[in-house]
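for the writeup, i need someone to sanity check this before i put it in the appendix. the sequnce is what the collaborator sent (i think, or maybe the updated version? ugh). structure was predicted straight from it, no edits. if anything looks off just tell me and ill rerun, i have time this weekend
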Amino acid sequence: MSDTAQLLSGDDRRLAPSARLGDAWATISAIDDPILRSSRGRMRRLLETRPAPLDRTERPGHLTGSALVVHADLERTLVLFHTKLQIWVQPGGHADGDANLGAVALREATEETGIAGLSVWSVAIDLDVHEVRPPREDAHFHHDVRFVVLAPRGAEIDANHESEAQQWVRPDELAGLGADSGLQRLATTGLALARSVGH
């Protein structure tokens, strides 16, 4: 974990949009976990070989940013039952041209949960490349860069149309919801980080 990493609120200048692919790669390359090296390598190839890796229309895949939203009790995370995909997932979405992936994760978490006062850990903690099959779209890959986002005490969910249901869960409950191994790994790692930095 970087000694300079810290929690950032939405108005922090370090969350300003960026169009520089080098900024996305700096975020990705800072993760050197052996378990995540394959995903990191695929993201590097995406950035080096595709003309618009930050654009949702890029195929066979593109970059996304997502958020493990941690409850103030530091024991639970928020999952959403995705309207289109019909699975339980963490908040997240397309970069839409923004190479500041921490800002993408925070923006998506705020839009999808409606929780005011979220803050994002400034360093990504997980990488995951997975196939998605949205209705009326071709199957493609999300190269997902994942961040911890902390909810304030008393947070109230006011979710948008992108999810049909929302639930605070402990990591050991995710398998029962059908969550994939990547989300289970993210929840374990993200909660450990949240507890280590306090709230």
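The mean pLDDT is 95. The chain has one domain: 7-197.
thx in advance!!
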